[in-house]
Amino acid sequence: MKRNNTLPATATAATATHLVLPDQLAQQAADAVRELLAEAAAANTTRSYATALRYWAGWHQGRYGVELTLPVNEAVVIQFLVDHIQRKNKTDLVSELPPALDEALVAAGLKAKAGPWKLSTVVQRVAVLSTAHKLKRQANPCELPSVRTLLSRARRAAVKRGERPTKKTAITRPELEAMLATCDNSLEGLRDRALLCFGFASGGRRRSEIAAADMRDLRKVREDGYIYRLEYSKTQQAGVKADSTPDKPILGRSAEALTAWLEAAGIDEGAIFRRIWKDRVGPALLPGSVAAVVKRRARLAGLVGDFGAHSLRSGFVTEAGKQGIPLPAVMAMTEHRSVASVIGYFQAGAAEDNPAARLLK
Questions:
Q1: Which CATH number applies to 21-160?
Q2: What pTM value is reported for the model?
Q3: Which of 1, 62, 90, 128 has its CA 20 to 30 A from that of 310?
Q4: 3-state class of 195 per DSSP?
């Protein structure tokens, strides 16, 4: 008996609607990659990329009178660099960005203020344009030798001029004690005390991690302690398998401050750190609000320096160096992946206790 291999018409039609042609598959794959990258990226990263690309579009329109399209020409990227990177002539530091265009970019809200950028901002803008080309799978002018060489020489020139990356002032034990002393027993005072202690004692948490702290990840381990399971961190977002446990201990005074806040605010689920409207507890704090709390308490304490949320992180590492805590133990708390990124703070803390500095004592 001859077998009929022909599908019924209805089955053939149904199958055909699910067939994906190669060109369609390529487009679907590209869309899926973009969606995956957007989902994986932190909100701050997404915003900064959007800001950078808007600036590129505005600058290109102002410079050349036409819209920006990818791929961008090599000469355009080099013009962007010489427009924004300062160089030293016989008398002063100069760049090629026309003053009228600079003012127009400020007026359009694409630039905070007129004048030169820091080199780090220029590098970030170029990195974003490079990423855009990679996602579109187009020839990437940002990786050409001419562009890479120009950026490399610009970095060297900046170092020779004495320019260094700016860092937030570290909040070590003395600064933290002064800030805690400004916190009273009001709801706001209890929250801020708990936030500062949590952010410092749990390993110098980033502002995004503090804002994302949730009761589901907090458990009591004894009368005077908690374990906070860090399920949201920059390391985890990068998809890197951490060598350390995500469990971060919160003990002693820090645990007491956290308990006092949770009981006063009546929090038993959801976000740990929240906004306060008069005497009412509101929704979760935003990362920017965490930074605002740190700055306000530093100001109330009369501290001098450039303080921000990152001050808790750098201060934790610096204080650990002062107290001689082994570097691996510190990195297990902070979840730093690179020794190079943490060693500067650690060595700064340990510098004053270096026995080699006491040879003439």
A1: 1.10.150.130
A2: 0.64
A3: 128
A4: helix
